[in-house]
Amino acid sequence: MSNVDARELAKFSELAHRWWDPNSEFRPLHEINPLRLEWIESIAPLAGREVLDVGCGGGILAEAMARRAARVTGIDLAAKPLGVARLHALEAEVHNVDYREISAEALAEDQPASFEVVTCMEMLEHVPEPASVVRACATLLRPGGHAFFSTLNRNPKSWLFGIVGAEYVLRLLPRGTHDYARFIRPSELAHWCRAAGLAVGATRGLEYDPLSRRYALGDDTSVNYLVACRKGG
Ligand code: SAH
Questions:
Q1: Which atom belonging to ligand 1 lies closest to the Cα atom of 53?
Q2: Which of 20, 100, 107, 123 maximizes ligand 1 atoms within 8 Å of its Cβ, making it the mutation to test the pocket?
Q3: Ligand 1 center from residue 47 Cα (angstroms)
Q4: Which residue range is the domain that position 147 belongs to?
Q5: Strands, DSSP E only, in the chain?
Q6: Among 1, 18, 89, 177, who pairs with 24 as Cys (CB 3.0-4.6 Å)?
Q7: pLDDT at 103 over 80
Q8: Rounded to two decimals, what is the model's pTM?
């Protein structure tokens, strides 16, 4: 059985043609991208590194990392977003990014210990068994390599801001984008990471100010958050 929810892939495929429109449903991803990119680089400088982006979608982060001179592989199981990602890289003349339709688990069987950096952003909350993706990410890393995860916390505040606020009030995201039951507490993610042989390092919150309509990295991990990990050895 593969670890994938077909309805989730269909949702992202349906919107795929708007992926690079900064005013579309993907606006939040465009806005948070410089923040997460700088944070990743502050921990694991990207130039010349072998990098894997799991659940890359239309390639917003993957292409940005390639522009920082990393050699990037982006993987996803939704064909349309991958097509959009390939076309965008072609038009932008970014050559050091390669997109593949394969699961993290399958790639981990083919190519264990191949990457120095693995990123998996805003994806775990769309997957039936996120712990299996975390394990695959750990397997894909070389010893000493860095993994970066981001997802949505699970508590009343994340329900209010992550679903009611984002999908109904501010309409930053289409209704039904997120399923509260799939949100992940930092303690759960940390547990899966440690069980997979990853040491959990810095954790940052992604804060949104509805008045200025700006995102910032901060200490408040109660809604959206990012975790940096390192594989031992
Ligand atoms: N990581 C990107 C895109 C996030 S959107 C970014 O942050 O910019 C979530 C992505 O996860 C979508 O592209 C969706 O197709 C992908 N996805 C969902 N389930 C998946 C699975 N089981 N395996 C691989 N990708 C998956």
A1: 1
A2: 123
A3: 24
A4: 6-151+181-203+225-231
A5: 50-54, 71-76, 97-101, 115-121, 141-152, 198-209, 214-218, 224-231
A6: 18
A7: yes
A8: 0.98
